[in-house]
Design brief:
Rossmann fold, 9 helices, seven-stranded mixed beta sheet, single chain, 315 residues, 27% helix
């Protein structure tokens, strides 16, 4: 049995992580740390967990008694954490923040469809960003085949949970409802990891959009590509043949097919030499906590799908 500890347990991603781990057949949660919720029942703060766990948030960090540590705190806090806490030998770490996505300090970038064999042999994994996951999975087969030529234009709409649990003017229901807006135009922080892993430069242009819904990312990439659609379809199918969560569909994809799952669904369209790739994921699962559990499974030699066989809330 894998014993897990969680830092930063009050946020949306941590709540989803707890939901997955309490039902995982090979995992026991040892403790959940939170600076803001100490002494409070986890299920009281994350009401979707009522009846699933009787754990209480703690301010005690016991790294010696666990096998894996999940870091779910805000970006920048992971490096600060390790400046104050020595990492015990043998402890495996999965960081859901962006601090080590450049693979510094011995971390492996945790996109299984790209680095599955490296993750299996790693001790520290940097979980990808949510936008970065959706966009890279849309374009990785093309990148590996040398087909990302010229400008690549991406727009992606995300749900409000992508902004985190802390309230902000653009996350309030009264503002977000019946509304759309763009932000961080062409400057989003996930561009760093996307460009690095796809080995493209600033010819990949990304516009993120705030959507009028809670969960999910709907990403559309458009670029020049005159290869026959049948050839591109075979390319994607071959590339993801061993990926249990990433699927190319023959028709359109939509968010309801992936919300509450660890899946990424893709579709291809082509017109007059322009290729359009659509990618949909749940930002809290395949874009965060589900992928973190997927990485944990790989780290410990467990089935990659363990604890992640979830049904989409289509209706």
């Amino acid at each position: 049995m894998v014993r897990a500890g969680i830092i930063g347990g009050a946020g949306y991603t941590a709540g989803e992580l707890v939901r997955l781990l309490v039902h995982h057949p090979e995992v026991e949660i040892a403790w959940i740390h939170s600076e803001s919720q100490v002494g409070k029942a986890v299920a009281e703060h994350h009401p979707g967990l009522i009846g699933d766990t009787d754990l209480v948030f703690t301010d005690v960090i016991g790294l010696e008694g666990i096998d894996v540590l999940f870091l779910c705190s805000a970006h920048g806090k992971s490096r600060a954490f390790w400046e104050e806490h020595p990492c015990p030998a043998g402890l495996k770490v999965i960081d859901l923040a962006q601090d080590f996505r450049d693979e510094s300090d011995g971390y492996v970038y945790g996109l299984p469809e790209l680095n599955r064999s490296r993750i299996r042999g790693a001790s520290k994994v940097a979980n990808p960003g949510c936008f970065a996951t959706a966009i890279q999975l849309a374009l990785l087969p093309l990148a590996k085949a040398g087909l990302l030529q010229g400008d690549i234009h991406v727009q992606a709409v995300t749900g409000s949970t992508g902004a985190g649990v802390k309230p902000a003017p653009t996350t309030h229901f009264s503002w977000r409802s019946n509304n759309l807006s763009i932000y961080k135009v062409l400057t989003h922080q996930h561009l760093l990891e996307i460009r690095r892993n796809l080995q493209v430069g600033d010819n990949l242009h990304f516009i993120p959009v705030r959507g009028d819904f809670a969960r999910g990312i709907f990403a559309v990439a458009e670029l020049a590509c005159d290869r026959p659609l049948e050839e591109l379809t075979a390319l994607y199918q071959d590339f993801y043949a061993d990926a249990p969560f990433t699927w190319l569909l023959s028709g359109p994809v939509d968010l309801k097919q992936v919300v509450n799952t660890n899946k990424c669904l893709l579709s291809l369209d082509q017109h007059e030499g322009r290729l359009v790739v659509t990618s949909v994921i749940d930002n809290l699962l395949k874009g965060a906590s589900g992928q973190a559990v997927e990485n944990m499974n790989l780290l410990f030699g467990l089935p990659q799908t363990a604890g992640l066989q979830l049904k989409a809330s289509v209706y």
